[in-house]
Amino acid sequence: MAQPVDLSGLHRELDGLKRQLCHCESRGECLGCKGMEMVRQQAEAVIAAASQPVLLQVAQEAATRDMLTQFGAMQERLLADPEIQRAAETMQSQLLQDPEARHLLEELMRRFQGGGPEETGAADDIPPRG
Predict the structure, then answer these.
(1) Model-level pTM?
(2) Model confidence over 70-122: pLDDT tens digits?
(3) Which of 18, 68, 80, 85 could form a disulfide with 36 if both were Cys (CB 3.0 to 4.6 A apart)?
(4) How many angstroms separate the CA atoms of 119 and 125, rounded?
């Protein structure tokens, strides 16, 4: 569990700034007093949220799931379109007929599967990216 954050220094500095900006003798009626109280509350909220790494992780996971759901729906719509299916098949056929393109695709697939050119015996004519 995260250690509590000491806000005493922040509160001390905000109190000093509030005294400099106050026009109502610290009754909380002027813009200086109200503004400093708002800054204090916002700082406390940010620090509280930042000290909750589990909340950040949950938010990131939820955003990732939402994005994957949207991509899945988009993929389903695209795959249901017969014109897009024909275009993808034509492109695949043309790529596989070109020996150089086919070689590059095979090398790319090997790299995606975790094997480098030296591990798979692939030709050295493909320069490493970098």
Answers:
(1) 0.41
(2) 888 888 887 788 888 888 888 888 878 888 888 888 888 888 887 655 544 44
(3) 18
(4) 15
